[in-house]
Amino acid sequence: MKRAFRYLARWEVLLLVFLIGMFVYGRSVSPYFLTSSNISIAVAGFMPVAIVALAMTLIIVTGEIDISVGSITGLCVAFMAVCLEHGVPIGAAMPLGVIVGALAGLVNGLLVGYGGLPSLVVTIGTLALYRGVAQGILKERGISHFPEWYQSIGFGTVPGTPVPWSSIIFVVLLLGFSTFLHATRGGRVLYAIGNNREAARFSGIDVRRALLGVFVTSGVMCSVAAVVLTAYLASARSDAAAGLELPVITAVVLGGVDIFGGSGTMGGVVIALFVLAFVQNSLGLAGVTPEEQQIATGAVLILTLVVFGAVRLMRAEAAALRRAWRRRTRGLIVGGVTREKLRGG
Smallest Cα–Cα separation from 102: which of 79, 127, 76, 138? Predict the structure, then answer.
């Protein structure tokens, strides 16, 4: 019974219940909510966030954060667009965009991992830096001359089904990230770093190299998200993916990944991604403006942090009480034995 209660009390189960509630709410808002076309649109529109969230999960598990993901994505969008504008085929521009994303992540990783600088401060700086470079590349113009096959990556569906091609990309990436995080030594290394960085270092883990790896991975995922986003919008602008970091971080934290590192599952993040996707979709069908939706997303992030902070505090207090009780019990036992010896003597 106790084990069943613990299972039902898992955060992932609560998220699933909330997701079901969102489907009920969405159905009440609009009769079109549960149609295959609407679900397909909701999933396709959220795929850039979902792809970046995979790498953000690794970063937050280590106790770090990357605020620059939106700007890296925008930089990759701008770079690929300029390549296309100068006659480079989009098939060649995509791998070049991946290289740009990897280099941007490399800069973050070197500053955080090898420079020892706080990731929050570093990525706030590179957020402005990369966005400024993107604006310098594209200026105020937009580019929309993308081939039809490329646009189908973002908005097209698998023939005969409502399943977006971008969701297939996400599922393949999800399988790789889940396997790495939960079934390999590399994943255990990230959890160890998030739990106690000094202990991980003394146990022989190359913390700097691991941090460099997760930030480079984040940059690569931003470039993949740039491909999907550009294909979905069928256009490229320097302000593409502005504000992407908010839903990405919200999804990871809402999915149960401790913002201080050391715990969390990829499964919880996936459920949280679907929750946010359908929350935004249902709010859109209800006539809520994008600005108000952003307010709701920010409120969800703050509320989640408050809840997890309260849980962390209660666990710490409970652990302190248990330690105090053990010390008191041990003292009573030792005292009793001492008194018996004195009486016998």
Answer: 76
